[in-house]
Amino acid sequence: MTQKRKDILIVGFALFAMFFGAGNLIFPPALGQGAGVQVVPAILGFLLTGVGLPLLGIIAVSKSGGDLESLASKVNSKFGRFLACGVILTLGPLVAIPRTSATTYEMAIAPFFPNFNPIIFSAIYFMFVLIFVLKPSSLIDNIGKVLTPVLLLTMITIIAKGVLQPQGILIDTGINISFSNGFSEGYQTMDAMGATILGGIIIGAIRAKGYTKTKEISEITVRAGMVAAAGLAIIYGGLAYLGATAGDLPMDLSRPELIIQITNNLLGTLGQGLLGVAVGMACLTTSIGLTATAGEFFSKASNGKLGYKAICIATAVVSMGISNMGVDRIITFAEPILLILYPMIIVLVALAFLDKHIKSAAVYKGAVFSTVLISVIDVMGTFILPIPVLTPIVQGLPLSAQGFGWIFPAVLIGMLFYVRDHYTNYTKKKVEYTH
């Protein structure tokens, strides 16, 4: 094996570990159970946003300066900072960090200690988070290196047992929009957000191995991404299949309860305990990393006016409060936020691959702001109150019934500005972000 192939495998496994989050394991089984015989299109939709988009996001930010802020600043610098703040808050105290605590409680504590107070647990959990965040130690990194293989081996064992000895047969659940359900469920992994924030780390790791040419870095990133995607597809696809064959289990089980019940049926109490411990510890390491990321980002964004330690403490306190909503309520709370943020990220990633053909920021502004407008109107109409005149117009757009009403306006308006620039020799340059 050549050195280049070894490096591709190393980076590929690193990408796999980055996206193989314990919190994400609760989504495919529930998706599969809801889809039944439509599990294949459901998991394809999930893989597009849960695996494909994060990998494209890493490539996109590598083309644009190394992080989401640099990519979004092609619209304008204020928008770049605004979107980066929104993503960090979502990955931090609003959704992702609280969900790690809630998932740990529901999968590792409640099944074995049902009377353990969730508020007391969350206080202990975030006390440990702060200990490691405020006084960094190599211990947590070493734990993380051990946990990923343990978690992976546990999941492969569960999936193999469920495939060789299915719990039941695929049933028709009556759902006919399984692909779009999987696509939007993939938003909940939040991996595309994480990729746009952490993409620079992967690119830096490739450069550190001695690769300096842009074309070669892109090639390694793509091929490593294929390695990671293959691994994630096996895990997510397998878990979705287990959910699809678990039609006999109650449909009203929470996501953590469903995967716990499936594991218990296949491997017994010992398997359930191993899964709970591995998931709980993996969630803790994820929470520590995200809390530190939030502290560093907002401290830097405020030019040091907000201290790193103060931000980390505030993040932990807010996360503790939200974590006691429980996993399913946190997911419900996150849905409208993600339905606004994700379409913007998808459009920005798509435009990054067309950037060399774009002459002005107007194309970015037109496509992104139209996406924001349609997404906000759609979310308002779905979760709060319909807006007279505007909501019916948005609901009448192509693909709106499938949740993709923003695509047509983004493409149309982006193309209009592109044609204007091309045929009128519009020369106003894009504003490039600099740190």
Description:
The structure is a single chain. This protein is mainly α and 435 residues long. The protein folds into two domains: 3-329, Up-down Bundle (Amino acid/polyamine transporter I), CATH 1.20.1740; 354-435, no CATH class. It is 75% helix and 0% strand. It has helices spanning 3-19, 27-35, 39-64, 68-72, 77-94, 96-109, 118-134, 138-164, 178-185, 191-208, 214-244, 255-301, 308-323, 327-352, 361-384, 390-395, 407-423. Helix 2 (27-35) packs antiparallel against helix 9, helix 8 (138-164) packs across helix 11 and helix 8 (138-164) runs antiparallel to helix 12 (255-301). The longest helix is centred in the middle third of the chain and has 47 residues, at 255-301. The protein is globular and about 70 Å long.
Which terms would index this structure?
2 domains; mainly alpha; globular; single chain; Amino acid/polyamine transporter I; 17 helices; 435 residues
At CATH level 2, the architecture of the largest domain is Up-down Bundle
Q: Are there runs of 5+ residues with pLDDT below 50, and where? A: none
Q: H/E series, N to C?
A: HHHHHHHHHHHHHHHHH
Look at the structure and give the mean pLDDT.
87
Give the distance, in angstroms, between the N- and C-terminal Cα atoms. 39 Å
The profile of the biggest β sheet is: none
Work out the helix count: 17
For the record, the count of structural domains works out to 2
| Percentage of residues in strands | under 5%
State the assembly state of the protein chains.
Answer: single chain
CATH topology group of the largest domain = Amino acid/polyamine transporter I
What is the global morphology?
A: globular
Q: Measured on Cα atoms, how large is the radius of gyration?
A: 22 Å
Report the strand count: 0
Please write the CATH class name of the largest domain.
Mainly Alpha
Structural class: mainly alpha
Q: What would CATH call the homologous superfamily of the largest domain?
A: Amino acid/polyamine transporter I
Portion of residues within helices: over 70%
